[in-house]
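tool_call: predict_structure(chain=1)
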Amino acid sequence: MRRFLKNNGLSITLFALFLLSIVGQTLTGWRALIEELRLHGLPPVGLLDYLTTGHFLSATFENWESEFLQMSVYVLLTVILVQKGSSESKTPGESNPEDEAPEKQRADPDAPWPVHRGGLLLRLYSHSLSLALVTLFALSFWLHLAGSTRRSNEEALRHHQPTKTMAETLGDPEFWYESFQNWQSEFLSMGLLMVLGIYLRERGSPESKPVAAPHAKTGH
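tool_result:
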């Protein structure tokens, strides 16, 4: 168990922080909605019922959507674009191990099993990371859309106004405002990490170049 915790400490810690954060979001969001309902003279909702409200779904998947967009764009752009001096970039004008044809490692017993199988399975596996991230983005986008529609309709019913469909929400500037306000921050943070990493260091982090490395050094 100690070896497992040591070897997987980063992922365990990140998922633990995620759970703490989602619980915090749920509890505070639930209390916020109860207060909103109270102001409208409506009865409160239970905690489990809150998890199916537009208030929770819209806010949750609005953020997941932007995160998966950030990661999928980042993975895809680093395939074709470089940034001289960044530890996150391939080295321009040189042969990089990421571009090596996996067929050359077919005889390696430690290679993942799709490498041994080859063919279409290997082609899919060669792009499985971006495929997974794009799929998660698309799913989160749809759930954000569904959650925003539900939240809008819940508010409409409180004010005795007509409800709307998901197609109508898709054409609503408010929905796109929710998305773009998150997208712009994700792209800004990626760009800043890329540029700051050229000149600044964090000793011990694989996301940083060695402290004594020249600014022009690219990749690991």
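agent: Residues 1-51 form one domain. Proceeding to next step.
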